[in-house]
Design brief:
The protein is an all-alpha fold. It is 78% helix and 0% strand.
Length: 132
């Protein structure tokens, strides 16, 4: 009985589905041009500078800014105010660093998915340049 019901469900599913409309020559041409430009699309995916490196640079800037500001402002500003501002700067950097780490992980997933799509497309269509 189960096999009969599942066979009927499959039969109904395939009967109700319509075949996709045939693509025009112009649509096919546009598709093939887009696939041939796949590597150029990848330039938007891959970046020259990594977020991890940028976060490390920002960390260095924050550390030096704190040291230098505390040294230079001893006579000009209230130390309590300067210390509060430097604490605020370090807290903002922590948020920046954590967000950069999360974005770096997502970036790696995005790049991997892009590579996987390119590999499959390259099996069936001419992708202009080799994938990374």
């Amino acid at each position: 009985m189960y096999n009969k019901l599942s066979a009927m469900a499959l039969y109904e599913k395939f009967l109700k589905e319509e075949e996709p409309a045939a693509m025009s020559k112009e649509q096919k041409k546009e598709f093939l041009e887009a696939v041939s430009q796949y590597q150029q699309i990848g330039e938007n995916i891959y970046r020259a500078a990594r977020l991890r490196e940028t976060a490390e640079q920002m960390g260095h800037i924050v550390n030096v800014a704190e040291q230098l500001t505390l040294q230079e402002s001893e006579h000009w500003f209230d130390n309590v105010t300067v210390s509060r501002h430097m604490k605020q700067l370090k807290e903002a950097y922590k948020v920046f660093n954590n967000t950069a780490s999360e974005m770096d992980e997502l970036q790696q997933r995005l790049e991997s998915a892009y590579d996987d799509m390119g590999t499959v497309l390259n099996k069936y269509y001419k992708v202009n340049e080799s994938l990374k």
